[in-house]
Structure prediction request, 546 residues.
Amino acid sequence: MSENPLLAPIHGITLEDYSAACAKLGSGLSENDVAKALGVELPVWQEANLLWPERMKQDGTFHIVTLFGQYFGQADQHPKFGNLKPVVSAEGANNTEKIKTDIDFYQELEVARQVAYEYGIDGAQWIADKYGINLGDFQVAASIWNEQIQKDLQTDYAKYNENQDTYRAKYKHLFAEAQGGNVADDIEF
Amino acid sequence: MSDEEKKKPLTYLEKLRQSALNQKNYGGEVNMEEARVEARDCPNCGAGRAYRHGLTACAYCGFTFMDIKLTDGVHIKKENNS
Amino acid sequence: MFNFFEKEYDNPALIEKIKQTQNKWISFLEKLEARMKEMCMGALPELKEVFEQDNDPYKRAHGRMVSALQGQLGQMREKANEVKEEKVFNFVHHASATIPPITTKAGRKYDDMLYAFRQVCLDRHRIFEEKIHYYFSLLKGTTGQQDLEADYQEQLTAFESIKDKFGCKQCGGNITIPKLFFIATYVTCPFCHTQNTFLPSTATQLVFHNARSLAEQRTAHLLKAYEESETKAPGLYQQYLRSMFDEWNKIVPDMAEENEKFYQRLLKDNSIDHH
Prediction:
């Protein structure tokens, strides 16, 4: 794979570095923090941050973007970022751990997040407020579970759907109630 | 339609508007900063950051600012390696 | 009509039920449509105000509001689908089991009646769906109000007025920023050769963030010409794409080389799609 020119490091920043950096930006680290962890100055980081997405755009095979997703999910294992964690509550830390180890917990919150948007609530903020999980860690969990979910979908589509419907119903009820019902609740057949 | 029914969507809109405006944006408000210039001194010899032999090392004491190999980027090019 | 061979099957109650169900279905959809119209029309001026009041450069309060309204449209759509399933499809299914076989005259008559009922209900539902779709677009359209051209011109003017006003952090000598940088960039002091780092304003970074959208706004007429052309001529699309990229490159000349690579990829994808 190293022959692929689209995978060559940009200013010494590899795709692994870049993917982990993006995950960490999502968990609340600043661009300066990230640049420092990578051992570069801000202009160098910002160029890499501009050019890696260009490489993904230029790659019609989606290979780079697929790898990006994989490395993103492994951000916690990246040696340059291993010790860099934003400050979170104990409960937040537990939930952050849980979402990366418990697929059902992740799937339920993913549905909750989507339904929140349908009710005009920023789903990412809702999850941060309610569970102390930041967007970066949520996206890391998404990359961790993506493959398993595809597999489950293929093995038992009906069951997958049923679970999704249950979650959807639960959160629709919750968010609708919070806003005093849906606009057309009173219209019946 | 009764008055009660007519009121419903409007009350909803009023509430929705408040909720949309009052919610905190994820990651906080965008801090609108002005353009500025910064410079870094060499942490090793204290000299100003001069450009003589590239960007990655101190021009005076050779201290490594960045342990990387610059490639051809947008403004920064290979030639900027010390 | 006389029928000497069999006592004709007759089920006036079913006929009445079909008629009633059809009327109820239509009136149910009409009520939903009236509600969605009221909601969306009432929302338009509110959305405009929120858009203007929203200080967030990404206009997220406005985005949340649009998303919620679309969520309510989705809610109405789901409601109609549930009723369609229960009161139209299930009804036809159960009623079909109670009528004589379609090999008989009466069976055919009732089967035709149920078929016609189902068709009328589905046709009406299609109109309902079209309306939902219309309101979805209407709400979505309220996000296109941002005048990106004005923002961009404002940044160009602002840059002209500040580009000579920076001083070297080392010697205080005057540094002129050679062009509108969108990212942090090293600039060398012409006097003491110190490497300073120029950090563009947040507003300038946002202009860059919106560069493609601005290029799309500038060339929207070409995309429209393609979309409205009867044959959807690929030549017209390519003309649009080229112009859009030209505009994009004018806004961020530093990215022209990268943009061209992306353009080539899109052309390639496009030619594959047309085979």
The mean pLDDT of chain B is 85. The CA atoms of residues 15 and 21 of chain B lie 10 Å apart. The interface with chain C takes residues 1, 6, 9-10, 12-13, 16-17, 19-21, 23, 25, 29-40, 48-52, 55, 74-76 of chain B (CB under 8 Å).
